[in-house]
Automatic annotation (TrEMBL):
SUPFAM superfamilies for this protein: S-adenosyl-L-methionine-dependent methyltransferases
GO CC aspect terms: nucleolus
Domain of life: Eukaryota
Family indicated by similarity: Belongs to the class I-like SAM-binding methyltransferase superfamily. RsmB/NOP family.
Official protein name in the record: SAM-dependent MTase RsmB/NOP-type domain-containing protein
Active site residues according to the UniProt entry: C325
Organism: Pelagomonas calceolata
One Gene Ontology molecular-function label: rRNA (cytosine-C5-)-methyltransferase activity
Length: 407
């Protein structure tokens, strides 16, 4: 029966008000639940647990399918990539890129090692001191040191130090340079000899150039070139401190270098790159580098590599070493393959670097020359070194080879 008493409108209003309030409370309750759910999903512990369970599921996918599981490999990888991106704070597109290089399990190992610092390494400068003297001086200053590795005669790993090792009197006197283990490898591949003409095309701040001068025993000619004038002060200061007497510091765009000087016995191209192998040193890389950056820089790297080859003395079968501190295939194997297609060069082994992983012969739909196995890849999770790529080329003849097929 309809309520037509005088109080009816007031009661109806009150009822409506109560209903509205109840509805609002329910809405808030729903939102809080949704937020809690979302927070829980992003909770690092839960994300990590999901990563582990997805890796487990991928390992036993066939068996799980037989037992009735219905998730596809693609959907597991999709969730894994999203979780890895949130857990390690890498852009999602970078995680996708790493998943084209590594298996899912290895990708997790790589990311985990990538965000942890690498050991501090002193490269002893044999132009001024012996390794045992450097070691003794550092120990006296409260450092704990050990030889870097069997492949290095000059590296010292500094495990603990009570003093800033970049400011000791021995450092200032040029007895050693702080240089990561991986950074020393391109120079070992180049193998410069006393009396030779050596070019480093992208040399600032001079870490690798000074190592070249050391192996050349300060005999020969060393050109340390870099595009960026503001970086030259650091190069000059380092070369001076380390007692290098054979270097000229030059400021040219490396792409135009063959028009400036040529006829070098060996050329090192330690190319500008995205730095995807050295994220621990610069954490901003993981949240800012994009796949578009990789493409752009690969274009520059190809131009620089052709210029490095053209700066060599083709008659003397010159040597070019190409290196980057990136792990992307686009900046490494693809750049070298471009040079193989455009110039008369072949990839040769870098014997000193046998311990590292071989370059890729394929990645996704890309195929590379079989000799790419002579290139070397270094990773934080396998070698406790920066992510690096090193490839040694021998120049076979004059430029502009028009290849029809890969031989
Ligand atoms: C990876 S760093 C070189 C590090 C150096 N080899 C060392 O060991 O100390 C790359 C260098 O390339 C230089 N660079 C960038 N574009 C260049 C270009 N077009 N020509 C020459 N140098 C360039 C940058 O200024 C940067 O110093």
């Amino acid at each position: 029966m309809a309520d037509d008493s005088p109080e009816a409108p007031a009661r109806a209003l009150e009822r409506a008000g109560k209903l509205k309030k109840q509805q609002q409370q329910e809405d808030v309750a729903v939102d809080v639940a949704a937020l809690e759910e979302e927070d829980d999903r992003d909770d690092p512990q839960r994300v990590w647990a999901r990563v582990q369970s997805n890796l487990e599921e991928l390992t036993h996918l066939a068996q799980k399918r037989r037992e009735g599981a219905t998730r596809s490999r693609a959907s597991i990888i999709e969730e894994l990539a999203a979780d890895l991106s949130s857990y390690y704070e890498f852009l999602r597109e970078l995680v996708d890129l790493f998943l084209t290089i590594f298996s899912p399990h290895e990708c997790v190992e790589f990311l985990d090692a990538s965000v942890k610092p690498r050991p501090v390494v002193a490269r002893c400068n044999t132009l001024k001191a012996r390794r045992k003297d450097v070691a003794a001086a550092l120990v006296k200053r409260g450092c704990t040191v050990e030889p870097l590795a069997a492949w290095s005669k000059v590296g010292l790993k500094i495990n603990r130090s009570d003093v800033p090792v970049g400011a000791t009197p021995e450092y200032l006197a040029g007895w050693y340079m702080l240089q990561s283990a991986a950074s020393q490898c391109p120079v070992l591949a180049l193998d410069p000899k006393p009396g030779e003409r050596i070019l480093e095309l992208c040399a600032a701040p001079g870490g690798k150039s000074s190592y070249c001068a050391q192996l050349m025993k300060n005999q020969g000619v060393l050109i340390a070139n870099d595009l960026k004038r503001d970086r030259h002060k650091a190069t000059t200061a380092n070369l001076h401190r380390l007692g290098v007497k054979i270097a000229a510091v030059v400021c040219q765009d490396g792409r135009a270098f063959p028009g400036v000087m040529g006829g070098f016995d060996r050329v090192l191209l330690d190319a500008p790159c995205t730095g995807l192998g050295v994220c621990a040193r610069d954490p901003s890389i993981q949240g800012s580098r994009t796949v578009e950056d990789v493409k752009k820089i690969a274009h520059l790297q190809k131009e620089l590599l052709l210029a490095a080859i053209d700066s060599c003395d083709a008659k003397k079968a010159g040597v070019v070493v190409y290196s980057t501190c990136s792990v992307s295939v686009e900046e490494n194997e693809a750049v070298v393959q471009y040079a193989l297609d455009k110039r008369s060069v072949k990839i040769v082994p870098s014997e000193a670097l046998d311990f590292a992983r071989p370059g890729f012969l394929r990645c996704g739909s890309r195929r590379f020359h079989p000799s790419m196995a002579n290139a070397r890849r270094f990773y934080p999770h396998t070698h406790n070194m920066d992510g690096f790529f090193v490839c040694k080329l021998r120049v076979l003849g004059k430029k502009d080879k028009k290849r029809k097929s890969r031989d």
